[in-house]
Amino acid sequence: MCGIVGVVSQSPVNQLLYDALLLLQHRGQDAAGIATNHASGFSMHKANGLVRDVFRTRNMRSLPGNTGIGQVRYPTAGSSSSEEEAQPFYVNAPFGIILAHNGNLTNAEQLKVEMFKNDRRHLNTDSDTEVLVNVFAHELQQATTGYSLDPAALFKAVGMVHKRVRGSYAVVAQIAGYGLLGFRDPYGIRPMCLGFNETDRGPEYMLASESVALEGLGFRFLRDVMPGEAIFIDNDGKLYNQQCAENPTLNPCAFEFVYLARPDSVIDGASVYATRLKMGELLAEKIRREIAGGDIDVVMPIPDSSRPAAMELALKLNLDYREGFIKNRYIGRTFIMPGQGLRKKSVRQKLNAIGSEFKGKSVLLVDDSIVRGTTSREIVQMAREAGAKRVIFASAAPPVKYPNVYGIDMPTRDELIAYGRTDEEVCREITADALVYQDVEALKRSISDVNPALKNFEASCFDGHYITGDISRDYLDRLEFARKNPKPALEDVVRSQLNLNLARAE
After folding, report:
1. In sequence order, what are the beta bridge partners of 11?
2. 241 FRET partner, CA 20 to 30 A, in 20, 57, 307, 357?
């Protein structure tokens, strides 16, 4: 999960990009980067840290130009948190391309071999974004003749990217001297939307991961970018678009609605807030079936993303709703934190219980999801220490049983508390008196009820179905092994693959 933004403006774009990244900060707190395009070429600044810490006045002054892109990074699937892997990434040929992306390429290792052997391109990091920009650059070079560039060549190159690249990707890219390109993978897993602003000087456009970035900066939401679609806005503000995939289908990530996106965003026509209310309504129906009436005195959310579900659940069950935990807003999101020890420590720093709301009560705690279980266990213990006589835990999402390989850091099965355990065993692990999970079909229904046009979802972490069709048990085993063991140098990976191919040929 990352946040991306691209802008074609009629005035200096650096402040717009900075403000947009602040609005997308929830999507990544590990690193931030901005690149702008101007008459002399590209200017870029990127580093590890929050947006407010990465960019100082001197950095902003060094980012001139009316077009540019930005990204906030959240490491995915065993990736490094090295500053070298902060986005955007740049290649100087053809034309000069600078690119940022949200998602995860599931065939990145295969593409590295292809680039070394066939494309003759050298990579400097393990980032799959560097892989993606080089694949696109190679295909754009193949699609162009001479020294000029037109939208048809861009769209042809994107079409070839769709053929070669597997996984999830929403992309913004700047082509030096030409304009802004955005495209989305053929399955539409990661979100991206288009906004418009009319000024006295002419039209302005913005591409962003979430609609909140558009609306917060005065842009009018036009529409979502379609799966497989590419949008090109030239430096004069003229927009071109084309479907570049052969068989695109829309399968938005269900976890975006559960946790990742801001509640005031609309993704693929579905209000995130409305879907979370619906999750609470459907979860209330299950709790009514499984928990005896009178066993719950009060409903409390785990701030912040579970609040809409908890409010609706309390309303449907005719129970009191209380805020029992107060959140320190200056502590990062614990799901994003890299180590179990750090997550455990941060829970107590992040949340503080109001003792009077717990004392002598049977409390129903509602969280958006349970991933590793570390946070849930700590919260249950905090409720008990505050005086709760009974703690029931409810998850607005189904059990997270499978790794996510499409851009969310759930790479190993043994890190997931629900993997290989029954609901009763998970309940004992988090030390709750009772546990109720949302059903998978109910989660999907909570989204499709808000936008009936949404029929299919990427919900692999819940149902184990990987829609790109290239994820096997062997793939997951290799991913887990790579996470637990240092990666060999890229040259060793390529040499090993070439030797294997030669052996097979013989």
Report:
1. none
2. 20
Q: Are strands 220-224 and 202-208 parallel, antiparallel or unpaired?
A: unpaired
Any idea how long the chain is? Answer: 506
CA distance 82 to 71: 15
What is the side-by-side order of every strand in the sheet holding 239-243?
89-91, 97-105, 167-175, 179-184, 229-234, 239-243
Q: Residue 300: count other Cβ atoms within 10 Å of its Cβ.
A: 28
Q: Which amino acid is at 387?
A: G
With contact defined as beta carbons under 8 Å apart, do 396 and 306 qualify?
yes
Catalytic: 2? yes
Strands 325-327 and 351-353: antiparallel
Closest by CA position to 287, among listed 255, 254, 319: 319
Instruction: Choose the catalytic residue: 2, 253, 427, 461.
Output: 2
**pLDDT tens across 387-416, in order?**
999 999 999 999 999 999 999 877 588 889
Strand order from edge to edge, sheet including 362-367: 320-321, 298-301, 362-367, 390-395, 434-437
Distinct helix (H) and strand (E) counts, the chain:
18, 22
Which residue shows structure tokens 């609005």?
Answer: 23
Please answer whether residues 69 and 88 qualify as being in contact, where contact means their C-beta atoms are separated by less than 8 angstroms.
Answer: yes
**Cα distances (angstroms) measured from residue 449 to each of 149, 189, 345:** 44, 19, 38
DSSP character for 180? E
Q: How far apart are CA 194 and CA 473, in angstroms?
A: 37
Over 103-132, what HEC string results?
Answer: EEECCHHHHHHHHHHHHCCCCCCCCHHHHH
Of residues 158, 142, 139, the one with CA closest to residue 245:
158
- C-beta neighbour count of 190 within 10 angstroms: 28
pLDDT tens digits, residue range 179-227?
999 999 999 999 999 999 999 999 999 999 999 999 999 999 999 999 9
Residue in 58, 130, 64 with CA at minimum distance from that of residue 100: 130
The answer for residues whose C-beta is within 8 angstroms of residue 140's C-beta and 6 or more apart is: 94, 95, 97, 149, 153, 154, 157
pLDDT at 332 over 70: no
* CB-CB contact of 443 with 399 (8 Å): no
